[in-house]
Each structure stands twice: as structure tokens, then as C-alpha cells.
Amino acid sequence: MKCRVCRGPAVIDVRRHNANFCAEHFLRLCRDQTAKVIDEFAMFGPDDRVLVAVSGGKDSLALWDLLLELGYAVDGLYLGLGIGGYSDRSGEMARAFATARGATLLEVDLPTEYGYDIPSGSRAARRVPCSACGLSKRHLFDKAALDGGYDVVATGHNLDDEAAVLFGNALTWKTEYLARQLPVLPARPGFPRKVKPLVRLGEREMAAYCVLRGIDYIVEECPMAAGNKHLGYKEALNLIEERSPGTKRDFYFGFLARAASRFAEGHAEDQQDLTTCERCGAPASSEVCAFCRLVEKATRTAEPVAITRKAQAG
Known about the structure:
Blueprint: E1 12-14, E2 19-21, H1 23-40, E3 49-54, H2 58-69, E4 73-80, H3 84-101, E5 104-109, H4 110-114, H5 118-125, H6 129-148, E6 152-154, H7 159-172, H8 175-178, E7 184-185, E8 193-195, H9 203-213, H10 229-243, H11 247-258, H12 260-271, E9 275-276, E10 283-284, H13 290-299, E11 308-311
């Protein structure tokens, strides 16, 4: 197996490109694909301050590394979700990465700063764990970016993630979610710009990138994700991709090119109905936002807490 670029020994095959790559040229491919997405969708520029949502997993750490390699001003944000040893190990991975690169990591710990963790909070609010987790993450990512003066929040959603979510939303025709399934969500009052620079790269490539770059990451899936439909959609698409390489790419980018705009108008009308949460000041569809209601149900208090900044020196 030879590298398509230099004809040297290859370390990975990327079937949707019908090509093999050596370590050097595979890493270059990852950088080029990330840079291409950033430019193609005008995600951010060299003067923008970027905040990467870091979980300790391969995708978010690879994204952070790629953006640093591309020369962007980028910090990380880690949320401690209180999911036992899984959260402990995830935090260790995020801190180790930041320390090794002399990068800045912001941290918010749900149990310490908001009085609940995802397992107990989901039970108290009668939400499935992934719902309580997603709600908490979205609110705190937005808050950290706005409070810290960041121009954009970047997440490590890769091609496999986006294709699986699109598959699920299309199966059930969740038009409000289809309207938002874009590589860029523009900033609007109370919300920072949100971007997904890894949508041209898959999970397998992100794992290989971390191995080749010497990035340690948490390998196991979140224990709270057991039974999540998203994982089933990924498995189904993996079977299709195995027989027809490039299907995920064609499915997702075909949606962006031919169908995404059809759902945008209705979503824009929905956003006009938002008001301001009387407790935290975030945009809300009622007097109290969903995050503050979650905190109240989990703790019976909802006191605002400041973000803690930790500078990690290499």
C-alpha cells in the first residue's frame, strides 16, 4: 500500500477518496480539509477569537490541535459533567493536551458550580441523560463564549456525526432540526457563532490523526449514551458506507447543496418569538429558560456562577 502523494509506505487508506496516505501526507490532508471547510463556509478569520468545546475525546482534541497548527487564536473549554470516572478521565485528557501545548483551557464543573451532575440532573428533570447533557452544554458554551469575548464556538462534530444526525432527522422529518443542521450557525442576540470545521473528516481519520500526532484521548463512549438512537444511525450508515464509500459525504453535502435552504425560512420565523430569561438573561421561549428550569429541578436553586479561567503553561 503506497501513498498517493509520494509513493512511500502508506499508513492509512481513505476509501471515499480512493487513496492511501503516508503519515506526513495524511496529516497534511487533515489540515487541508479543515482549512478548506473554514474557507468554504467562511467560518472565521485570522483575527477572530475561537473557543473550542473540548470533551477529552479524539474529535475535539484533534480539532483544537488542527486549529493551533493552522495558526488561529484558539482556547479550549471543558465542562465537567460529573459522570463518575468517565468525567475524571476526560478532564485529565483535556488538561494534559493544554499543558503540553501551552494552550489556555477554561473549565466549568457542573457539580461544583451549579450543584448537579448529569446523572442526577436528568433524573430530577425527567429528561434522558443525553438531553440534559446537551441542554447544559449548549447553554454553558454560549455563556462562556459571550462572557469571554470570543467570536465563535467550534465543536468537533465530524462527517460521521453529521451524517448520522441528518439521517435521524430526515427519518422523522424534524424540520426545526434540519433547518439548523449547518456547518455554520450565525451569531444572533444572545448566541455566538457556532461552527463545525471537521465535517469533511470522519471518525476513523480523527482517531488516526490523534495517534500520529501523539494525542492521548479518552477512548470509551460516554456510559450515559447507552441506547442513544444516534449510535444506531451511525451503525446503519457504516454498513452502507462499507459497500459504497463516499455515501456519507454525498448524503450530507448533497443536503447542504440541495435541501438545507428549504427549511431555513420556517426556522427564522421561530427565532423571532424568543424573549429573555428573567433569571440568567439568556434567550428563552418563556420567562425562564430551559437551562434554569433544569437547574431548579435538580437543585431547587439557580444561582449564576462565573466561568473559571485556567491558563495551562507548557
